[in-house]
Amino acid sequence: MKLTSDELRKKWIKFYTDRGHTPISSASLIPENDPTVLFTTAGMHPLVPYLLGQPHPAGKRLCDTQKCVRTGDIDEVGDSSHCTFFEMLGNWSLGDYFKTEMVQWSYEFLTQVLGFDPERLAVTVFEGDSDCPRDDETAALWEKCGIKRENIFYLGKKHNWWGPAGQTGPCGPDTEMFFDTGKPKCCDKCSPACDCGKYVEIWNDVFMQFNKNADGTYSPLKQKNVDTGMGLERTLMNIQGLQSVYDTDVFTPIVGKIEKLSGKSITDPEHVKAVRVVADHIRTATFIIGDERGVTPSNVDQGYILRRLLRRAIRFGAGLGLKFGDYSAVADAVVDIYAATYPELAAARDKIKTEIDEEQTRFERTLENGIKEFEKLCKFLQTDVIPGKSAFRLYDTYGFPLEMTVEMAKERGFKVDVDGFNERFEQHRKLSQAGAEQRFKGGLADTGELTARLHTATHLMHKALKDVLDDPNVNQRGSNITPERLRFDFSFGRALTPEELKAVEDKVNAAIAADVPITCEEMTVDEAKAAGAVGLFATKYGEKVKVYTMGEFSKEICGGPHAARTGELGHFKIVKEQSSSAGVRRIKAVLDADTSRNTASN
């Protein structure tokens, strides 16, 4: 089937709208008030409070197309299917339908809407363990739909259990759908668990029945949910029988731009990986910078991942002959592709290009310093072998790929301890993967009393900052809350004075002393705007949002946990104010005056 990305998005939304689902907007790539992950990694991530039982303003059946970033497999980018940014088509049942309806609809969408041959479909279900029984029910439902028994595979938690998105939260067994490419089986035990390429994953239905607790145990959820995710890029590749996601319409204009600028072709085996890495990383960087809560390159958190992506793209692009300004030109092509679907990118076009150009300049300066460091290393080396730890330092600190270090060493008559480098690289990769996918305790799944109070305090501080600084451009750019402290990023171009910080504290504490009730109303986006609410507004016409009001002190769109009255918060104290990235400041604060400064060290 010949299908464009826009057509696939529309078919998905129509299919589920026809079945009583309400379309919702994609959430920001930067999670709100969640310290457990750096980026939104799945469509369910922003919906965690509702999966736990909080009513959603749009009802119990939802669907969307969600922007996602996952960097745990960054070193795999360059193959046919791995991407750091991707779009996830999702639908949810929040305590409504469950396995019977979901399996039937999955089969219908795959075979009747997308036209997949049922004979070429394979599915997996959970084989069961001490936490959850074997899922014979789902296997029987698939067989009833028309999936052959020999194409139904039972697999363990590694393959057929999803979640939580962070350290704690909703999770459960899943059933995954695969396309059989027709390649021969690699062995007698060949299954979708293999990496032989015979089976390519299309879709994942998660049956959320449990909440994972902080101690690693599982508790039944008070409502059973369905959470599904279909990767747009991989689905397009499979439907059209393409060789890679880079052959789909969301990538071909980007690849074409790189080929034009470099004079190199993606069909050349020598350059295919470099072209793919540049295409993927610049696409991801464009979405991160251009997000509603977009960040800029820095040495911490999301800004560090962004810097790593851009510098990796520039390293690979150098081998293609790409020069200054070429990477921002590639970003221009990304914006052109997605502007209609994600208008925030068009609005941030100039900012995106400027940030990429500036990071390229900074990186080239770093590389120059790295070459000086390399020359110093060679001068004082006692043997003819550059240690693996030194080669890795050049990679990690100065951006030198191993191949570059080996080549420069060879020119000077040295060798490189490649095994030692690989050992340190693998240690670094594992730490990066863990850091990208799981952060601190707390998160959207934490609705505890302390977290709710700190969450409430961010609203009051946001309004106080706007009032004290008297700048219409002061807006929230990120929030990270644990039960011990809050961290709040906001757009502002300079450090706050001690007098300004004291004024913000006083305004928040005045609101707390007023002990006003905190009310929640559901209203449309237009109604929220008319009421003077601040926050990220949904983009779909008529979409409903929750607006929390605290007397005359704050009115803000939000979906997180809140206190019942402002008087519950205790005393508000700012413990640190610093730069987060260019044009963004960061405040760390606690509730209760005797809390030490070290409390906010995260």
Topology, pairings included?
Blueprint: H1 5-17, E1 22-23, H2 48-51, E2 61-69, E3 85-94, H3 99-113, E4 121-126, H4 136-145, E5 152-155, H5 157-160, E6 161-162, E7 169-180, E8 199-212, E9 218-231, H6 232-240, H7 252-262, H8 272-290, H9 301-320, H10 326-338, H11 343-347, H12 349-380, E10 385-386, H13 388-398, H14 402-411, E11 415-416, H15 418-437, H16 449-469, E12 476-481, E13 486-491, H17 498-514, E14 518-524, H18 525-530, E15 544-550, E16 554-557, E17 572-581, E18 584-591
Parallel strand pairs: 1-2, 4-5, 10-11
Antiparallel strand pairs: 2-3, 3-9, 4-7, 6-7, 7-8, 8-9, 12-13, 13-18, 14-15, 15-16, 17-18
Helix pairs in contact: 3-4, 7-8, 7-10, 8-9, 8-10, 8-12, 9-12, 10-12, 12-13, 13-15, 16-17
Description:
- With 602 residues, the protein is α+β, with helices and mostly antiparallel strands.
- It has 18 helices and 18 strands.
- α3 packs parallel to α4.
- It is globular, with a radius of gyration of 25 Å.
Key attributes of the depicted protein:
alpha+beta; nine-stranded mixed beta sheet; 18 strands; 21% strand; globular; disordered C terminus
Number of strands: 18
Mean model confidence by pLDDT: 88
The end-to-end span amounts to: 50 Å
> C-alpha Rg, in Å?
25 Å
Catalogue the unreliable spans: 435-442, 593-602
Characterize this entry briefly.
With 602 residues, the chain is α+β, with helices and mostly antiparallel strands. 40% of the residues lie in helices and 21% in strands.
